[in-house]
Amino acid sequence: MNPDLFAKSLNTFEAAHKENGHIFVTRPDLPPLDEFTEYLEKIWQRRWVTNNGLFHQQFEEALAKYLGVKYVSLFSNGTLALVVATQVLRLSGEVITTPYSFVATTHALNWNGIEPVFCDIDPLTLNLDPDKIEKLITPQTSAILPVHVYGNPCDVEKIGQIADTYGLKIIYDAAHAFGVKKGSDSILNFGDLSVLSFHATKIFTTMEGGAIVTNDEKLKKRIDYLKNFGFADETTVIAPGINGKMNEMQAALGLVQLKYIDERIEKRKMLTRLYKNLLSGVPGISCLTEFDNVDHNYAYFPIFIDENKFGHARDVLYENLKQQEIYARRYFYPLISHFPMYRGLPSALAEKLPVAEHMSKQVICLPLYCDLGEEQVERVCTEIKNVYENHAYKEMEIV
Ligand code: T4K
Predict the structure, then answer these.
(1) pTM score, two decimals?
(2) Residue 68: what are its φ and ψ, rounded to 5°?
């Protein structure tokens, strides 16, 4: 792009965002820049910018310690980590998964030539309903791929029992579940592998990035080969691997970010409480259940709109917020099972996924990130109340 044009569009972008008071669903939580530049200077001095550099090694170790897990393998993003996790366990045939997720969950199977088998979700947790898994198992089933949606833990005990009974592997898509604990144990310690995302929109970000977590040393070794083209040493290639490596800048950012994550989760918790208080009297709005034995990470703040009680459909609220420059998002609508590459599958039929269909039409994720001010949360809630109370708007719709 022409540099003048680029500068102009950048200014326009920044001005629009500042002056008009736009509120996005999320913003990356970044550390003070000078702390990051100290690390950058070291990268410049060392001239070692990728391929298992010093910061990469330090970040893997620090992350495993922080998360309370044995082994972490860093990746350039969460999607590649999911693709490699599927490869490393040699999955094939069919894998049972959820339609209520970001499309990357199912795409990872597709890239491995595996047929996703969609299973309905639990209305309370929005995660795979373990009571509906068994009837979907066939001789072709090799694994279960559940997602800890919004960081809410899956029923790991029941899913584990089913996998043990039928000899299936489990990969947890833990893209939303950074730092979540069930009891005193990290939620990442369940299943064969867990996959994290450090995308800009996640509570812990390295701009792009991801990781596979495992307690199995041999698996960790094979994952590391696979993410580096399959190289076991300078001249030995043990598998058709891929390039999924995290670079030194991402790893350096990760090291700095670790210092701030606890206070950020606290801030998110406070904002979540504020939202819940402010919205508690509004008919037709319900929030995600929090569980006593879980350390939640407050990654998202989804609300669910009961049209009959709220008086307007979810999309009326969504559009109205947008008009007020509040860019909430409908995670996860449409369901993955609605996308053209999946909708022809027998398991994608809407009547087989009634809970997922219902919830995806009700959900709207409200803005939540660390720099969000309390006054902005109040503004979002005021707008929601305005939509509820706005009868003129209602009449307009009927006409
Ligand atoms: N599994 C699950 C369950 C996932 O949710 C995801 C990713 C993955 C796997 C795959 O992991 P990665 O390969 O991404 O590591 C976003 C993210 O791109 C995606 O990472 C995320 N899930 C998904 C839930 O959300 P979009 O299309 O909604 O992103 P976008 O660009 O519209 O951003 C949302 C808002 O965030 C913007 O309106 C403004 C704000 N934003 C975004 C970016 C990129 C910023 O303020 N700054 C930024 O740099 O998908």
Answers:
(1) 0.94
(2) 75, 45
